[in-house]
Specification:
Elements lengths: L18 H7 L9 E4 L5 E4 L15 H7 L1 H16 L1 H5 L3 E3 H4 L4 H22 L7 H9 L6 E8 L8 E3 L3 E4 L6 E10 L2 E8 L2 H4 L14 E3 L1 E3 L9 E3 L1
Parallel strand pairs: 4-10
Antiparallel strand pairs: 1-2, 1-11, 3-9, 4-8, 5-7, 5-11, 6-7, 7-8
Helix pairs in contact: 3-6, 6-7
Length: about 240
């Protein structure tokens, strides 16, 4: 198997949900303090380590891409994710996220890296689940440190889930025109406790028009619109409860 990002030998597993996000919610996972995930067969499985292969995509990438090449993207999301978890109650009272407080002096660069973090996760999902979306623009965005022009992100919080320790990647919902081999629209969510990230691929402008409070790196200013999302009831196989 070759790395879908650079084409080299793929020898490294990428976490579907970032290990640091798992650690924010479940800081002391061990043999004596396991967590549980539900499989696609609706069975609960006990997990004793955040390094478990159950958290990793089967779409492997190379070690260089998983560490050196994409490390700045991981670090940017880790910094933003920690801020969101620490300030959820305060953000609930506002409709904007003060990015200049999260990334002082480097908002544009950091939010490009956040965008590319989700481009990387999205690319792994495309390969793992054989989703009919062209993968090359995803790899080129990562290799060139440039935005993917058809990937949009919204950030906010879930309503009515206070106190629940949930880490989840939702199933991918999509729209496809039968005559076209590729999807015209795809959407999925990345959830860490109450923090909700909505990720969309929009091939056609008419689908982009229905998206609310989403952004691309070129749109980012010092403040970002912060959204409220309704809970998702169709949980995927990759959700974890304490």
């Amino acid at each position: 198997m070759n790395c879908w990002i650079c084409g080299q030998n793929a020898d490294s597993g990428e976490h579907r949900t970032k290990k640091s996000d798992l650690g924010l919610v479940f800081p002391n996972v061990s043999l004596g303090k396991p967590i549980y995930t539900k499989t696609k067969y609706n069975k609960w499985v006990k997990i004793n380590s955040l390094d478990s292969d159950r958290f990793k995509s089967t779409a492997k990438i190379c070690q260089h891409c998983n560490t050196t090449r994409t490390q700045p993207f991981d670090q940017a999301w880790e910094q933003l994710s920690a801020y969101l978890q620490e300030n959820t109650n305060r953000l609930r009272l506002n409709d904007s996220l003060p990015l200049h407080k999260v990334f002082p002096g480097r908002t544009k660069e950091a939010m490009l890296y956040v965008h590319l973090f989700f481009v990387k996760i999205f690319g792994c999902l495309i390969i793992e689940h054989k989703i009919p979306i062209p993968i090359e623009p995803f790899s080129q965005a990562i290799l060139n440190h440039s935005e993917h022009p058809k990937v949009y992100i919204g950030i906010g919080y879930l309503q009515k889930v206070r106190g629940k320790n949930i880490v989840q990647i939702s199933p991918i919902e999509s729209v496809k025109i039968s005559a076209d081999p590729f999807l015209h629209f795809a959407n999925w969510q990345y959830i860490v406790k109450e923090v909700f990230v909505d990720i969309s691929f929009s091939y056609k402008p008419e689908y982009t028009a229905i998206l609310r409070n989403v952004w691309q790196p070129s749109d980012v200013t010092k403040k970002l619109r912060f959204s409220k999302f309704a809970p998702i009831h169709n949980l995927s196989s990759n959700h974890i409860f304490k």
